[in-house]
Amino acid sequence: MNIPTTLKYTKDHEWISLEGTTATIGITDFAQGELGDIVYVDIDTVDENLNIEDVFGTVEAVKTVSDLFMPLSGEINEFNEALEDQPELVNSDPYGGGWMIKISLSDVSELDNLLDAEAYKALIVG
């Protein structure tokens, strides 16, 4: 299982990459594996300000549909439009081409609540 040490994580199996006050967000390798083959990513919250834990979209797999939760409060600036034609990028490259959104953080103190790679690994391994 791939858990890059350069990223931060949530209990909801999202990863966060930070560049200043911009965060790139996707779902983890573990999450995509649990979901199975992803066939659709639906995110219609671009340009909206959402709070931590708000639903920002859904990911649809062959077996199920799952809500995507904001790991941090902020404004959604960008959706990875490549996922419209290639939702399977979430399966094949969850930490690269399969990223989902970019946000501008509204409360940097929320970063303190994120998990590092070791804590995330402990969460999923048990």
Protein model, in words:
The chain is of the alpha+beta class. It has a single domain (8-125), classed as RNA polymerase II/Efflux pump adaptor protein, barrel-sandwich hybrid domain (OB fold (Dihydrolipoamide Acetyltransferase, E2P)). 19% of the residues lie in helices and 35% in strands. It has helices at residues 29-35, 82-85, 89-92, 117-125, and strands spanning 8-9, 14-19, 22-27, 38-42, 49-50, 55-61, 65-69, 74-79, 101-105. The strands form 2 sheets. Strands 1-2-3-9-8-5 form a 6-stranded antiparallel β-sheet. A hairpin with a 4-residue loop joins strand 1 and strand 2 (14-19). The two termini are 14 Å apart. The mean pLDDT is 96.
Write a brief structural summary.
By secondary structure, the protein is of the alpha+beta class. 19% of the residues lie in helices and 35% in strands.
What keyword list fits this structure?
OB fold (Dihydrolipoamide Acetyltransferase, E2P), three-stranded antiparallel sheet, 126 residues, single chain
Report the span from N to C terminus.
14 Å
What is the global morphology?
A: globular
Strand segment count: 9
Overall structural domain count = 1
As for the CATH topology, it is OB fold (Dihydrolipoamide Acetyltransferase, E2P)
Q: Determine the number of helices (DSSP H or I, runs of at least 4 residues).
A: 4
| Largest sheet descriptor | 6 strands, antiparallel
Radius of gyration: 13 Å
